[in-house]
Amino acid sequence: MANTIAVLGVGPGSADYLTPAAAKHISEAGVLVGASRLLKTFAQPGQICNPITANLQDTVLIIKEQCKQHKVAVLVSGDSGLYSFANYLTKYINEDLLEIVPGISSVQLLFARLKKPWQQATVISMHGRTDEKLVKFVKEKELVAVLTGKDNTPQTIAGWLISAGCDDNAPVKVGCNLSYENEYIYCGNLSQLQQCCHQLTNCVMVIGDV
Ligand SMILES: C[S@@+](CC[C@H](N)C(=O)[O-])C[C@H]1O[C@@H](n2cnc3c(N)ncnc32)[C@H](O)[C@@H]1O
Fold this sequence. Notes:
This protein is of the alpha/beta class.
């Protein structure tokens, strides 16, 4: 009989933001699956590590195969319920086999760094996708948190919003590499961000008055 598969939100990346519940699952697992940066931080000696590739179906097959013999922990960044691989897994693996453990989201951590609440914020993902609703929200001066991606960098998103007619003076904060030693918070407006020369990687943005 197959072992339960633990799908763990491991927080923004640093072990400081790993919950004790997720840490327990990791220490009990024989096999870890996740993005390379997460495996690098959380893998323990002797564990079999499987980096997630662009071919998600391959990863699903690996998980289904490995759980026959091992306890498998799937590591997802931030919270498992916010634009994560967990949702994909529930479509291809029997839910009775999955245990989902939530984590601290990058969005939560950025608002904490800004010392502001986020109950009014709408979360939009531009990670590997484009969401036109972002233009509408920024025009209506709603508070929006935006997950960015390789193609949709903060500068690209700022340029896209300005060309779509958004106020180029709209306030924006960008949290980069949150929880890591090279964490960086950028503050400015859309126009300044569009022209920003820093390479802003692994970022979440907040647009609007916080
Ligand atoms: C696939 S989404 C997953 C979001 C994740 N479930 C969460 O709750 O944060 C990946 C995006 O999350 C954001 N992200 C993840 N880790 C981050 C970090 N340490 N610092 C800033 N943003 C991060 C980035 O926008 C990244 O492109």
